[in-house]
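Course assignment 3, question 2. Fill in each field.
Student: A.L.
Task: Predict the tertiary structure for the chain below.
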Amino acid sequence: MSEKSQVKAQNSGAIEQFGYEQELHRTLKLRHVVLYGVLFMVLIAPQSIFGEIQVASHGMTPLVYIVGFIAISFTALSYYRMSARFPIAGSVYAYVQRGINPHVGFIAGWLILMDYLFVPSLLYVMVANWGVELIPGSPWYLWIVVFLIFNTFVNIRGIHLTANVDWVIFVVEILSLIAFIYLGFKYVLNGGGYGHLAVEPLWTKGEVDAHFVATAVSIACLSFLGFDGMSTLAEETEHPEKNIGKGIIIALCAIVGVFVLQCYVAALIQPDWANTDMATGFFDSAELAGGPVFRKILLVVNIVAIGIANIMNAQTATARMLYGMGRDGVIPKIFGKVHPKYKTPYASAIFVGAGSLIIVLVLSMSQLVRLVNFGALSSFVLLNFAVFWFFFVKEKRRAKFGEIVAYFICPWCGILILGYVFTGFDAMTYVVGIVWLIIGLIIGAIKSKGYKEVPDAFKNLEV
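Answer field:
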């Protein structure tokens, strides 16, 4: 393929230039991609962990999210650049595969699968816990089974149906947030909590140090996970070379604003951060501002938003990651199977649903929380290095200062920040993560016959 034809194909979003056929329905627009990312990261995500962050940050939860956003933005920019150059499904797997080589790409994909497989299970446990609190005595596992069946069914039926469900959940979340912010400000300005718009939740002199920053970045990596999943929709999005990267940046900027605002209001309501309940801190603020009925309403909204929108989008991203790897034959090719009618990776969707149920039965919530970040952060390190290696080293895009910033400074800032976060993991996380990596290395060696063979898409292409 000539350079002119390649550029033309890339601008049209065609994937034939990368050695694949268009199998999935390409129906999503920029607004759908942004909505998917916002819902994946969950507009109301801070509500479930507000109390824990508030105590750990000495009352500065809003600042935690601001610092964390700045830290994770370097990796988001790497996704932006790679999604423009390689608008194909597979996310970090595809980007590292093309940016460095297919074998390293497999390892990156294998590492982030650890995160993608654990996240839905963690969310199912959270939803089941809230469900039992909402309806005391209700069967814990029933909440998981009902939501799991529904989400898997929607994922098999198609991305368009997923997008329609997303819009409904989005409206519910927005309305609940507007109500909380209104009631919260009213409560504070009428003399409750701080009694005024205090600056302390945003900055308390003498409390911000290296430990605070490390905590902020760790929390951000968990709270903002989901922006990376947006890139898995490349083959179902119109003009993915523009809309995927743009969608990632828009969604991240929107979500951090919403995170900071709701946490600021919750912190204003409860100025005594040291005595904030770590499990129910946000809901306690909601009850102070709006009464016990409003607390129940927010609990229901969390169950619906996370139980449907968040988990559904997490399973969607995981299924498409498996689809990209199965299509290349680096894992069993059944994962690359597409439903003849719905044009979705149905085998992968079913596997993700079944796998989530098994993981829930084996691991506790505390174990899942510790394990989620390892795979994502490891693959993010490889992604940032891929940006540096592909653009700065291979393509030699370093003649201008802007290129040096984009392809050298930013990715290496991302690598150093993520490396710093790694120092805070506990022993169990290291052991499980390293075992997972070793298993991946063995599988990769077997499937590639000693890392000698590459996927079919690479055999006749030089991209």
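Instructor remarks: Residues 19 and 189 are 61 Å apart (CA to CA). The chain has one domain: 41-457.
Grade: pending
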